[in-house]
Amino acid sequence: MRRSIDSATSPKFGYRTLTVLILCAIWFVASTNVAQAGINVWTNIGPEGSATFVYALAIDPATPGTLYAATEYCPVSNCSYVMFKTTDDGGTWVNTGPPMRNVLVLALDPATPATLYAAGNDVYKSTDGGNSWRTASIGLNGAPVVLIAIDPITPSTLYVGTESANGGLFKSTDGAGTWNAVRIGLIDSIVTKLALDPATPGTLYAGAGRSYDNVFKSTDSGATWGGPSLDDVVFALAIDPATPSTLYAGSGSCVFGFCRRDSAFKTTDGASTWAAIAGLSNTRVNALAIDPRTPTTLYAGTDAGVLKSTDGASSWATMNAGLYPPVFALVIDPAMPGTLYAASASSTGGLFEIEQVCAGDCHGNGQVTVDELVTLVGIALGNSFLSACTIGDVNHDGQITVDEIIMAVNLALDGCT
To answer: Does the model's pTM come out above 0.85?
Structure first.
């Protein structure tokens, strides 16, 4: 039987009283279920409990419920390196592929997500969604690999950063079949991070990890490099997808627990100049992730947890409820950017997920819109994915009527069908 309420059959309270009662009931149930469902709270989703240290993470852009996690799995006392895969958003995990030592980064082909790469002591490639792997390290001279970056327009072009005296940056134009050094102008032999201009992938930014002059720029697909800029070690590098001249760099050199004051930097002129970011200091920034739909929203994964900015890094707020730092990798669900995954390497670590849902006055104007009310009801009913059932201000008068409230409640009760 269809559950619903109707203004004609509701108890004869006044409209104002009815509105208050409905909102209070919804708010009470939603507030209770938010904590139960893990909405707006980090939840551990595996891969194998707290004995798993996750160092690298990747999400399938076409099927975001599919994730890969490169881990160090320590169930009792002996540790092993295991690649895990889930196709149901962390509900179940399978061990995929042979042991791959020291895997620190993963990358998926944006055009063919079944093709993915893992990097550690070697480069590994899979073309069947991780079911089988082969080494793809010809030309790397045995140097440990610490980064992989894929050209978003021409995915057969890849870059890897290595960590050795004879290392630096290498490039492949045949899908990791062979590698050649591209380090003219790169004075640092350890290249830890790379960011490609999404509109003009021939423009690259490389973050180095040994000296204190550590961001280099190339405008010819890595053939030559200029710089350096930024006087700090770089552990994370992210580029604004809408304004590629804006980049963020994560740093925070720490020795025996003492860290340099500035832990992150921002440039708005293509890495010519950098400014320290307030609110991120005295910690190490290991990962940066930018919301693909709203680039002024970004996240920082640090030794102290996760911080969020909604104003282009001008201010930050911690979001650590349920999370166990340090955080070494962050991934945003491309279909639902409010869903975020964090890879933890603590003794109670693993992979954590958070679904950020605004429940109530989302715009801070002292009012609740019908859209916000529908979301609130959906949370109360255990359904956090209600974007399909938002209905807007039906009367277009900027106010919520009782009929609109009832419509929102009934939509949520029906599961937005």
So the answer is: no
